[in-house]
């Protein structure tokens, strides 16, 4: 393990209230290509348990698990305030099992895309992140500028120029109780995930989810309590679709499993459900801003956010899912109803291109350059 420069990025970094204040550590990662070349068999777990395993044995087994190909994403770097630094060794990218984010779900998270060496909408996502932490009654381990600086340094250490940065705030480790009173310090974690390929705006099918939607108090907060979201996604896939669509307590269109929903009406109006009962999507809000160009040139008649009935949604000319992982994804079928012509619509495709262009060359208000 080697030390790297502790020179803080703008805003300054004090990596951990428990760890050294002037050291960020890195490990050399085992590459996926090396694991593949070595011909290692897929990881199948171990039925026997060694109660006297040495630290070196445990490290070897963790490295074996990582190199097996059991993980299908490339983790380039992780920051943890528990040890107060950054590691590039996937085997060291762990959190304590007694952290309440693990066994009680008492944590929040957010994300930011990395495109061409720039962080996209980091400020906007950070604002939502801190709002979520306040709603979840999680005190900050650092101030906003320090958290921002840590996140940028983590991307810098990763050398990743295209992918995503995901980060979490937890009430921290301490015990297995329900209350967080025994947690001495909140914890910040961040990880950089490499994604060399871009999403493709191919049409998809969705279904009306049978999984109960979260109450507005928890839907507007981006917490780690995503079991309803995961089950909605799985239910959609089990029924031959991409995901499920939630309806709110009044039967209006709410959102997808982890993305917002948009429509283009027959009157060429871009329509989205209001954000008062669902997560306020940063990508969706940016799409609404970029769509103003289409109003100006006549391709859209207007932009509206209001209640949308299922009947109105299914009768739309276009339907789309909007989120940071998919950008803009056309929906061509909802349940048994074909949407519009049954093919990807021109507005969805245009909005996809606009958001992608914004990620690559948008203003400084949405793009932060990373110094590698």
Automatic annotation (TrEMBL):
A Pfam family: Aminotran_4
Domain of life according to the entry: Eukaryota
GO function term, MF aspect, one: catalytic activity
Xref: InterPro entries: Aminotrans_IV (IPR001544), Aminotransferase-like (IPR036038), BCAT-like_C (IPR043132), BCAT-like_N (IPR043131), Class-IV_PLP-Dep_Aminotrnsfr (IPR050571)
One GO BP: amino acid biosynthetic process
The entry's keywords: Pyridoxal phosphate
Cofactor names: pyridoxal 5'-phosphate
Ranges where the record places region Disordered: 1-22
PANTHER family per record: AMINO-ACID AMINOTRANSFERASE, D-AMINO-ACID TRANSAMINASE, CHLOROPLASTIC
Family stated for the protein in its record: Belongs to the class-IV pyridoxal-phosphate-dependent aminotransferase family.
Protein name, per record: Uncharacterized protein
Species of the source: Leersia perrieri
């Amino acid at each position: 393990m080697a030390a790297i420069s502790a020179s803080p990025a703008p805003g300054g970094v004090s990596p951990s209230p428990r760890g050294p204040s002037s050291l960020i550590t890195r490990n050399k990662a085992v590459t996926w290509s090396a694991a593949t070349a070595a011909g290692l068999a897929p990881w199948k777990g171990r039925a026997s348990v060694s109660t006297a395993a040495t630290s070196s044995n445990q490290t070897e087994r963790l490295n074996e698990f990582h190199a097996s190909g059991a993980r299908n994403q490339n983790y380039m770097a992780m920051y943890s305030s528990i040890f107060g630094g950054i590691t590039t060794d996937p085997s060291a990218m762990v959190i304590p099992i007694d952290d309440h984010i693990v066994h009680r779900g008492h944590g929040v998270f957010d994300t930011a895309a990395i495109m061409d060496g720039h962080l996209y909408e980091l400020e906007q996502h950070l604002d939502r992140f801190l709002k979520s932490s306040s709603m979840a009654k999680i005190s900050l381990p650092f101030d906003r500028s320090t958290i921002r600086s840590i996140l940028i340094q983590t991307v810098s250490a990763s050398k990743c120029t295209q992918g995503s940065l995901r980060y979490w705030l937890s009430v921290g480790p301490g015990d297995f109780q329900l209350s967080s009173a025994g947690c001495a310090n909140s914890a910040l974690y961040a990880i950089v995930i490499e994604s060399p390929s871009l999403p493709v705006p191919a049409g998809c099918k969705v279904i009306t989810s049978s999984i109960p939607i979260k109450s507005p108090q928890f839907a507007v907060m981006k917490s780690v309590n995503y079991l309803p979201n995961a089950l909605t996604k799985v239910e959609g896939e089990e029924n031959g679709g991409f995901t499920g669509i939630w309806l709110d307590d009044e039967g209006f269109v709410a959102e997808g499993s982890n993305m917002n929903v948009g429509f283009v009406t027959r009157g060429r109006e871009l329509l989205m459900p209001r954000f008062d009962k669902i997560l306020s999507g940063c990508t969706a809000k940016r799409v609404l801003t970029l769509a103003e160009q289409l109003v100006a040139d006549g391709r859209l008649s207007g932009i509206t956010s209001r209640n949308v009935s299922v009947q109105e949604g299914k009768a739309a000319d276009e339907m789309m899912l909007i989120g940071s992982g998919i950008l803009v994804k056309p929906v061509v079928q909802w349940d048994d109803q074909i949407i519009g012509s049954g093919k990807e619509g021109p507005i969805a495709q245009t909005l996809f291109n606009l958001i992608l262009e914004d990620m690559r060359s948008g203003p400084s208000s949405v793009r932060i350059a990373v110094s590698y």
